[in-house]
Design brief:
Shape: globular
Number of strands: 44
Structural class: mainly beta
Strand order of the largest sheet: 9-12-15-18-21-24-26-29-32-35-38-41
CATH class of the domain at 26-126: Mainly Beta
Strand content: 25-35%
Helix content: under 10%
CATH topology of the domain at 26-126: Immunoglobulin-like
Number of helices: 1
């Protein structure tokens, strides 16, 4: 349905589940999450987080990274690990970072080397396999079930339990008489192809479980109406467990809740706030992390809008070593993706986000690093009560001063054309720096197109005198002002983008020889395989297959 990630980024996908044989961590020496070795790795399907705390570590002793599939000879360069001299979020001072765009089910050799002291370390990390062994299949009752269905039987790493609809058809519709459609208090479980409707709180409630795959489900009509007429904060998929880890949510449709959310212009006296409050499609509060959320479609209509499309009221979502990619995300009054708080090695890429106030929120990033790349953002709006000419537009990236490193590469902020009589196009009013001051952000190769060029494409300050001393902005295509440190964007280009008029669905290529075409900077592991003399700015490399988003992407 939705086109997004290019097939070159999809790698191999086998629809049996995801994360078969997903391991804990990999490294040299002890490999325990509770007591990691000096160096260790935490993989997903396409990425691995890398951690190293050598005695020689310091900010001016950079950590170079090379990797290769085990048994091959040619090394590939990755982005250097970031050195954090703080003790924060339970992490000691040391190097942290990610290797991305890996193949699933593959063992990789990783070589780390400090530039000044020559200190070296070698790791072996295996990405998750996408094929799951299934030991037993449980079919739901034929027809429509009106009661909550409870999953309590666990599988094993060698044999998952698959819960799915009966061949003659199954559905769970609790008609707003039960809080949940389905609960999960078991691990090594696959939930596939279920139609879940009518929960008062949560379509799926996850308890203290791990290694659960939720795929090809259709979840709708959840939440209830509070006494002020707005919806509650129910979710299609939700957990409050602090031990929840390795949850894969893929190829689901999460849509049309029962309740509605107030916009930023609609006051909820019950909570003494204009802040949007209402149903959310997906949220894990303070979980243990290492999740993958991919190829989902999240959408609704103007009378059943979301609060955030994914996130958590308690923040700390999705938590460490997690990936969010290939999703189509729309129809909320706050953040399309709210990935905030103590996040570390979070990777957000290849999503299409529209009809939100803010595209992606990472405010704050207390630990870091967080990587945001090759996302595409469309319509931004604050409410539906003001006319377009009077309406405030939101930002593509919401940030504030958490201190953790944030990498922002190759994103495209679109400006959908305005209707007749509207002064400005319909996209974001600011690109980077919405919601507060930025701290420790590096941007490269983005198209930071704002609706009104009088407003900032980058704003990292709260006043005239404060700018982020750790900010590093360059090689971006932008049309707005720069409210940041003097000398920012020395290789940037200030102009509006010109796109190829021959672009088809899922293609966002710049026009041949237009500003930003073939003039980006090389970012090892993030834009390998570019066409021409240099990478293009923006999310799409001209000459690549169309991007794909949603349930049918990348198959």
């Amino acid at each position: 349905m939705w086109r997004g990630l290019s097939r070159g980024m999809c790698l191999a996908f086998v629809l049996l589940g995801a994360g078969g044989g997903a391991g804990e961590v990999a490294g040299a020496g002890t490999v325990s999450e509770d007591g990691p070795a000096e160096a260790y790795a935490v993989p997903t399907f396409h990425c691995t987080g890398v951690y190293w705390s050598p005695p020689e570590g310091r900010g001016d002793n950079s950590c170079q990274v090379r990797y290769r599939p085990q048994g091959t000879t040619a090394w590939n360069d990755a982005l250097p690990l970031w050195y954090d001299d703080r003790t924060v979020g339970g992490y000691p001072p040391g190097y942290r970072g990610s290797i991305v765009n890996l193949d699933p089910g593959t063992a990789y050799e990783i070589h780390l080397r400090l530039s000044r002291t020559g200190t070296e370390e070698d790791l072996l990390a295996a990405t998750w396999s996408e094929e799951f062994p299934i030991a037993r299949t449980v079919y739901l009752p034929v027809g429509t079930t009106r009661l909550t269905y409870r999953i309590t039987e666990s599988g094993t790493p060698d044999g998952y339990v698959l819960y799915t609809a009966a061949p003659a058809g199954s559905a769970i519709d609790v008609g707003h008489l039960q809080d949940y459609c389905l609960t999960v208090d078991a691990s090594y479980v696959i939930i596939r192809g279920l139609n879940l409707k009518g929960a008062r709180e949560y379509g799926i409630r996850l308890y203290d479980c791990h290694d659960v795959v939720i795929e090809r489900c259709d979840i709708s009509d959840w939440s209830r109406i509070e006494d002020d007429g707005w919806g509650n904060r129910g979710s299609a998929i939700f957990s409050l467990s602090t031990t929840l880890k390795r949850i894969i949510v893929q190829r689901n449709k999460l849509h049309h809740p029962y309740g509605d959310t107030n916009s930023w212009s609609e006051y909820r006296a019950k909570y003494s706030s204009y802040h949007p409050r209402g149903p959310r499609p997906l949220g894990f509060a303070d979980s243990a992390g290492n999740h993958v959320i991919r190829y989902n479609e999240i959408y609704s209509d103007p009378n059943h809008c979301f609060d955030d499309c994914m996130g958590s009221g308690n923040n700390n979502f999705p938590n460490r070593d997690s990936d969010i990619y290939g999703n189509y995300i729309a129809n909320c009054w706050d953040d399309g993706i709210e990935a905030e708080d103590d996040n570390c090695n979070i990777r957000i890429w290849g999503n299409f986000i529209e009809w939100t106030f803010v595209g992606i929120a990472v405010a704050p990033t207390n630990v870091g690093p967080v990587y945001v790349w090759r996302n595409v953002a469309g319509v931004s709006r604050k409410d539906d009560t003001h006319a377009w000419n009077e309406m405030e537009r939101g930002g593509f990236l919401k940030t504030n001063a958490g201190g953790g490193k944030l990498y922002v590469f190759h994103n495209t902020v679109l400006q959908p054309p305005q209707p007749q009589g509207v002064l400005y196009p319909l996209g974001s009013g600011r690109s980077l720096g919405w919601g507060g001051p930025m701290l420790n952000v590096m941007s490269r190769n983005n198209i930071l197109h704002v609706a009104n060029p009088k407003y900032p494409s980058i704003k990292d300050c709260t006043g005239v005198t404060y700018h982020d001393a750790l900010g590093d902005y360059d090689w971006d295509l932008y049309n707005g002002s720069l409210e940041t440190y003097p000398g920012a964007e020395p290789h940037g280009i200030r102009t509006a983008p010109r796109y190829d008029p021959k672009n088809a669905s899922g293609e966002f290529a710049l026009a041949f020889r237009s500003p930003g075409f073939n003039v980006g900077v090389v970012l090892p592991n993030f834009n390998d395989g570019y066409h021409g003399v240099a990478p293009d700015m923006g999310a799409f490399e001209a000459g690549s297959p169309p991007m794909e988003f949603g349930v049918d992407a990348c198959q």
